Amino acid sequence: MSSLVVKSPGMLTTIQDLGRPGYGPIGVSPAGAADPVALRLANLLVGNQPGAAALEMTLVGGIFVFPNGGAFALTGANMSATLNGDSIDLWTTYIAPSGAELSLGPTKDYARSYLALSGGIEVPLFLGSASTHLLSNTGGYEGRALRKGDVLQLGTMPPKITPKHVSPSALFALKPRKILRVTDGPQADQFSVDARNAFTRQIFRVTEHSDRLGLRLEAPPIPTPSPATMTTEAVSLGAIQITPSGQAILLGVDQQTTGGYPKIANVIGVDLHRVGQLRPRVEIRFERTSFAVARALWIEQERLLNNPSQLFV
């Protein structure tokens, strides 16, 4: 059986797939890749199912050894990857020879890079998913981030791997953006007109106190409804809560399943993967759109992601 040896784990490297949605009513976060589009594309490049387990690296990548070789692909943030010392590209299939060393460094642009390995990573599933949820120590590799010396077992490679690249047109359509589109949140009508206008007019800065649970955003305070808290209720991925201090929190994939702050807006589906690539100190804005437009954009994106002739060259 093929394997991958962790020589250095980087800043924060975990095993992720497409998560375990649907368990919010029993208090279980979805987890999964913060940028599910990058994960899906990485898997497709190496002949895996789109939701196979892969590695998610945050801000600084790791160093990995292929004892028996294998096919792999990197997507997402540019971490200046090299294979046996030679620079390699993102969004491309590679075949590593036996003993090869893959090395990544600090990101040059976005927050997260994904390493998919042909055959996928084999770990016990929790509620049907291999995704790591660090707060509950569940899923992934012993419920934790990877450490030096960990050995990951890989599944069986397909008999034939056809090297390919993600097309420039697909990358353009799916690229990260700093203007995130939103629909009104459940409590939007409780905010004043001035508050709602301020929300879409001003610039927010992602603070260092951000992680997979959510992004804390810094900006002039948004006037809050009175009272500024409410009865705890279910919250969704991409919800934007306004705290009593007027600051915004954008909920991520490791989100809590309930919350007691009013939600002024929610990031639309096609921009959720872009949230996963926002790193500290980046400045962003929000743009209000309709549910009809959000749905149409989602359908368009899914058509692209399920059309190999458009995705790859």
Gist of the model:
The chain is of the alpha+beta class. It is built from 6 helices and 20 strands.
Write up what this structure looks like.
By secondary structure, the chain is α+β, with helices and mostly antiparallel strands. The chain has two domains: 164 residues, no CATH class; 131 residues, Cyclophilin (Beta Barrel). 17% of the residues lie in helices and 27% in strands. It has six helices and 20 strands. Strand 6 and strand 7 form a beta hairpin. The mean pLDDT is 96.
Question: Which tags fit this structure?
Answer:
313 residues; alpha+beta; Cyclophilin; 2 domains; 7-stranded mixed beta barrel; 6-stranded antiparallel β-sheet; 6 helices; 20 strands; 17% helix; 27% strand; globular
Topology of this protein?
Layout: E1 3-8, E2 13-16, H1 36-45, E3 54-58, E4 63-66, E5 70-76, E6 82-83, E7 86-87, E8 93-96, E9 100-103, E10 112-117, E11 151-153, H2 168-174, E12 179-184, H3 193-201, E13 204-206, E14 214-218, E15 233-234, E16 239-242, E17 248-251, E18 258-259, E19 263-267, H4 269-275, E20 283-288, H5 291-305, H6 308-311
Parallel strand pairs: 12-20
Antiparallel strand pairs: 1-4, 1-11, 2-3, 3-10, 4-9, 5-8, 5-10, 6-7, 6-9, 12-19, 13-14, 13-20, 14-17, 15-18, 16-17, 16-19
